[in-house]
Amino acid sequence: MATNRIRLAAVQDKVMPVEQAVQLIKNGMVVGMSGFGGAGDAKSVPLALAEHAKNHPLKISFVTGASLGNQIDGKLAAAHALSRRMPFQADPVLRKAINSGEVMFIDQHLSETLDQMRHHMIAKPDIAIISAVAITEEGYIILTSSVGNSAGFVAMAKQVIVEIDHTLPVTLEGVHDVYAPATRPHRGPIPLIEVNDRIGTIGIKVDPAKIVAIVENHIPDTPALMTDPDADTQIIANHLIHFFEQEVAAGRLPENLGPLQSGVGSIANAVLAGFETSNFKNLEMYSEVLQDCTFHLIDTGKMTFASGCSLTVSPKYAERVIAHMDQYKDKIVLRPQEISNNPELIRRLGIIAINTAIEFDIYGNVNSTHVSGTRMMNGIGGSGDFARNAHISIFVTKSIAKGGAISSVVPMASHVDHTEHDVDILVTEQGLADLRGLAPRERARVIIDNCVHPDYQAALNDYFDRACAIGGHTPHILSEAFSWHDKLERTGHM
Amino acid sequence: MATNRIRLAAVQDKVMPVEQAVQLIKNGMVVGMSGFGGAGDAKSVPLALAEHAKNHPLKISFVTGASLGNQIDGKLAAAHALSRRMPFQADPVLRKAINSGEVMFIDQHLSETLDQMRHHMIAKPDIAIISAVAITEEGYIILTSSVGNSAGFVAMAKQVIVEIDHTLPVTLEGVHDVYAPATRPHRGPIPLIEVNDRIGTIGIKVDPAKIVAIVENHIPDTPALMTDPDADTQIIANHLIHFFEQEVAAGRLPENLGPLQSGVGSIANAVLAGFETSNFKNLEMYSEVLQDCTFHLIDTGKMTFASGCSLTVSPKYAERVIAHMDQYKDKIVLRPQEISNNPELIRRLGIIAINTAIEFDIYGNVNSTHVSGTRMMNGIGGSGDFARNAHISIFVTKSIAKGGAISSVVPMASHVDHTEHDVDILVTEQGLADLRGLAPRERARVIIDNCVHPDYQAALNDYFDRACAIGGHTPHILSEAFSWHDKLERTGHM
Does the keyword NADP apply (chains A, B) (predicted)? Predict the structure, then answer.
């Protein structure tokens, strides 16, 4: 079994028990690990490391593609094994350690991590831990359900541990397209023009001498938990589909809309699922995470091709998709996140980006990360890569949260991840605000009229009117701008 | 004289007095005009339009490359001729009209305007007014001291008015490189790999039938007003040069640093001028505005090539540079702003971006546009194009303003144009904060220690300490976050 997957003779003697491999990870190291959106994580090694750290205290700087499954981040945080973490996370235990100031979290645009390492902005990994379905005779590491930052980690780390993942089939070979931008200067264009172009190799070419350990893994990816679309997310999807129909009718968008990007999570998933009952055909995706909805649209013939950097599917889809990968190989591709999220390609392709907001303000500045401006949820992820450079940048959220105690539309965003310059369309279940070509005062009018829950509309109008009476291009009353958040913290209700 | 410059026979009969040309501009039109950083504006037509509007009220939507000279914006605003203005301005009269809500100002990333028009996000110009030194026999409009958005305006407008500028020599022919990205879908890479690559044509190819008027212009560009470096800007420059020396010594930057971008204005100009006394050689620039310092560095042999989209020079340099353009043609090129500011190229080239902040906060969020979060100064300009996609994103400002009444470092930026994700280095005369790879709490420590004026250091430390005691990834006390701005508005002093 093992030799079937480890076809490179030169490294077959590197197979070792996970307890032995873990000892290669030393205090103070920068560890680069595969994993994006809970897919394609290395698992046996980091989980063993968390156990090991209980009795052998150590601190590492831990870099991945994005969030991890199997409570890996939580267990490492609980073992106090993390000094630094980048570029994204979504674990409740780690989140607590970040917000308490124990773990230094560097919340990065997901396209940037590898280029920052490559060009000496941040430290390169001392060791890489890479999840693979196989190592080929030619010396390619064949990745699993995500590509993330793995190729860059292998290229830049001094040592590489490979986890051979026996829970995923070798038929994944051929689904990845591994390409790295050249080191500057004299970097050329990235030669990708269509979403289904293949520009790289099927795996990561590795110097066999770098492989210091191979570990067999039998722990599966944590399946994505998707809540089904509810009435509100359905209405948000309908608003968006209606908008797209109008754009096509007016000749402003092509019939298939152009490549779609969709953020992670239930709302974004529900929005994309809304395309199923639409009249749109030949849809294409150029996104980070391929979720259930992607495969649903492919299966129903609505979508012709999807490019991503990870497969984050629920159990219902995992079997269908992973087990029948051969049927999908001409319809999907998994790329490194520096390619899936690359500003050069996002601008060139003209992507329609749909991401989720925690809150936005009356001028359209979006907070996607911090509760009440202070407490980190997950991170900015790829939303900034897409929003800044997309053809149309859309943010969606429900107009209220916590049964109405919180308005998602506030006088001023308590943390700004996306400035008004990068936000074209806002959608809640109340309606859609088309902000293109509008000045701040006009944006406020459209946002308050279309997106705000009726319970908060009068108060926002009152704030806006009083601010306008004082004046300014972006009228605000700074002494009141956060009064809603302040009241929430004090009383539990805005 | 005129026929010398109007070499295209088919349009020679379109020469007319400016008073006649002005009547082609109708109420409600979208007018696209050349001009960037007070260079290469059309002048006779807009100034005549401002006169005309006094007796013939009209409102236009006015789009340029960036800011204009000759008080054009102010005179149009005073005549109440502007309903909308984009994507940038720097005129005190227009600023007042914007802040009062009379003129709707759309403050845009300067790389985006043409792509938004091309792909139907905002209205295309009904009429374009283009400043030119000549129209060639082959039908090329040869631009003057800026390229800006002129090529796109000519391509997309129904009608074109050309202003033949007799104040600028025809030797400018050959300094421009006009290239437009293809309309999507199926857009290819922009084939630029080195800063001195030429990828386009020497002028704007125009359908002669579109040219509805040619006007002779004898009003010169308004010369840039540059204040000489003062002690503080000199110290800021020194901090930056020292940082660059360290980066090169550590092998993190190449010996010539890579392509430099520098924002407009006296501080940025002083910073670049600081390179003169440094040991750096073979410097290259890939920027928007080529200012005095650019030519000074070329003249002194420090800089080998500079790519920009406008020539904004003071009278001292204007004569030397403009009159001797033949000597500079192999050392500079002027490109459309959608190429000079293109995210694809900024990321590919690995640009070091140096821009000016109005204020920044303890976590490194930068406000470059709004005084006290409400009143627009000029606009975001190209700073967002560069900061998001640059290799190193640097912001500079003096630590205090108005004789110490204002601290440029505040608890929370009152308006966010550049989020902490896009800000790597901050410099004041107090020192330099290297924020690369740091988490927010670490960023705050480095910023307060290095960049803050001593008069405000204790108060910022106090705010930060109390915020940290409450907790959060980005600790803030929302009820106090704007107390400094609030006090400033009430008492004139932070």
Answer: no
